[in-house]
Amino acid sequence: MAQLDNLRKKCEVLGLEPEKTRNRVNKETGERYRESTIDSCILTLQNYYIEKYRSEGVLNPFVERILEFKPMLAAQMKALKEDEQSKLWVDNNNWMATEKIDGNRMRYCYNENYGVEYFSRNLSEGNDGDYLPLRYSSKLTIPRPDMNALKAAGIHDFIIDTELVPYYDHINQFSNLRRIDGEWKEVLEYPVADTGLSLTTSVLGALDDLSHRMQETNPMKLMAFDIISLNGEDLTQKPLKERLLQLAKIMTILRNNGLEDKIQLVKGTTVNKTKFYKDIASKGGEGCVVKDLNSIYVGKREKTWVKAKRSVSGSILEEQAGDTIDAFIIGFKRGNEGTNIEQYVGAVDFGIYLLDEEGNFVTDDMGMPVIHHIATVSGLTLDERIQMTEIGPDGLPRLKKDWYNKVAEIDGQDVSSKNLRLSHSLIKRWRMDKNADDCQIKKSFLESLIL
């Protein structure tokens, strides 16, 4: 309700009246009435800012097109019945398995009159936001295509659906400016990131100068998987197999005229799909999205695209272990400097108690139970960050004391063999019914989840 209340308040301040689309009944009087929803408030704000920017002559030419094409989303595999799931993996059956890319969804836009733009699926929210798609064109340093070459090839504009990911598999140091002893000095440091996804998030969340510095040694690339429009034509109603043919042609032209391998086509296959999925999982990949080649592009979650995503919880279920990974908060990390969360908790560390084969606590040299750092979760909502953050005497954000030992059910992509820690970890739900003493896992069980 907090988000809805804030949206209604912002509309009120701007003198806007969102459409009332939700039917309600007053429990005391039985009177029926209608009220605005989150969606109706956001639509009202978007229309307001579009007209405002248009009148000021600063409306980005891609914004309305991006809003017109809401992102296609994949359903969970569990949304299908078991017999439906098995049919997806049959060879040459109009279903294609494509690698699931662990990146940031990005619309790659081009127009011969304006050049290149990058838009996220996320909106600019909050008190200062306009609820229009976030634009990252000033941050990303991916090479621009040769516009004359595109024009000669008959390409005037397009919108391509991509995932933004790091070009390298490893994270490199970059040269940054730091104030040391009253002087600005160049220093080498690593981005505040431990995975490719968190590196991409850091690049997008930093101020432009810092983002550019990080990309000098940690460049980004685009992984393309669909095309939405070409030369003004809406392609969303064409079947996926036709869209992919168009995408392949555009990709060849882009790669040969400036982008080279900074844009790549997501891999896929219509045969040996089970092996394709297992090969991705064995290399630490996230899994697959299985797609109906006859599907049109619909701006919502549809069963014509299905996620087969590897996770620790999935591995647990496959082994029929019946466990979940419940962990408690043991620490935190501040939001990165220069980002919009620098005044909040940026990530929280989770711990568990390790048990031996007999179910006894693994202890340290003092005989105390070992608290194992199982995960660091950075994917927090703004509401969560606000609730858990306070400003300390040093003026820096810190975790409130009452958040320590809070328990959550967590998940991740795999368990690291180096430190028995979850990678790409996330919070599935908070467990108010559990306390820290309940968070116990056999060390051998964690080791069994290493891929």
Summarize the entry for a quick read:
By secondary structure, this protein is an alpha+beta fold.
Task: Looking at this protein, list some descriptive labels.
26 strands; six-stranded mixed β-sheet; D-amino Acid Aminotransferase, Chain A, domain 1; OB fold (Dihydrolipoamide Acetyltransferase, E2P); seven-stranded mixed β-sheet; 451 residues; alpha+beta
Description:
- With 451 residues, the chain is α+β, with helices and mostly antiparallel strands.
- The protein folds into three domains: 2-59, no CATH class; 65-167 and 219-310, 2-Layer Sandwich (D-amino Acid Aminotransferase, Chain A, domain 1), CATH 3.30.470; 317-448, Beta Barrel (OB fold (Dihydrolipoamide Acetyltransferase, E2P)), CATH 2.40.50.140.
- Helices cover 27% and strands 32% of the residues.
- It contains twelve helices and 26 strands.
- It has helices spanning 2-13, 38-56, 63-68, 82-88, 147-152, 196-205, 208-217, 240-259, 273-282, 312-318, 382-388, 443-448, and strands at 22-25, 32-35, 73-76, 95-99, 104-111, 115-123, 133-135, 157-166, 174-180, 183-189, 220-230, 233-234, 263-265, 268-269, 287-292, 301-309, 325-334, 345-355, 371-377, 389-391, 397-399, 407-411, 414-415, 422-423, 426-430, 440-442.
- The strands form seven sheets. Strands 5, 6, 7, 8, 11, 12 and 13 form a seven-stranded mixed β-sheet that branches. Strands 17, 18, 19, 22, 25 and 26 form a six-stranded mixed β-sheet that branches.
- β9 (174-180) and β10 (183-189) form a beta hairpin.
- α6 (196-205) packs antiparallel against α7 (208-217).
- It starts with a helix and ends with a helix.
- Mean pLDDT is 89; it is low at 316-323.
